[in-house]
Amino acid sequence: MAKKIALLFAGQGAQTVGMGRVLAAHHPAAGELFEQADQILGRSLSGIAWNGPLEELTKTSNCQPALYVHGLACLAALRNAAGDFSIEAAAGLSLGEWTAHAAAGTFDFATGLRLVETR
Predict the structure, then answer these.
(1) Closest alpha carbon to 50 in 39, 34, 27, 71
(2) pTM of whole model > 0.85?
(3) Measured between alpha carbons, how far is residue 71 from residues 35, 36, 49, 55, 92 in Å?
(4) Distance between CA 2 and CA 45 in Å, rounded?
(5) How many helices (H) and strands (E) in the chain?
(6) Largest CB tally within 10 Å, which of 47, 68, 93, 115?
């Protein structure tokens, strides 16, 4: 029987200072997403996610884009380690719904990031 893979992405409240730093250091594809996000947003979102302070990361304008990027960076690292695989379903809690849409291919990374930033 073939295995089916479903993804679940976190919503606001799951953020923590340091999220994604080690992941980006060990998986270039994950690090590239953080770099792209910094360029797209015109600010160091990675710096806030990786170094805080918590009060800055907790702001909706920072935590939602950071969680979006982190979720997709986790997926990129997983695909790097496990190879390409099909996704049967993707879901998320609140903000995580946007990450799930990007993972499912509803829109590309940059479009989703801009939507989350506007949200």
Answers:
(1) 34
(2) yes
(3) 15, 14, 12, 21, 10
(4) 39
(5) 7, 2
(6) 68
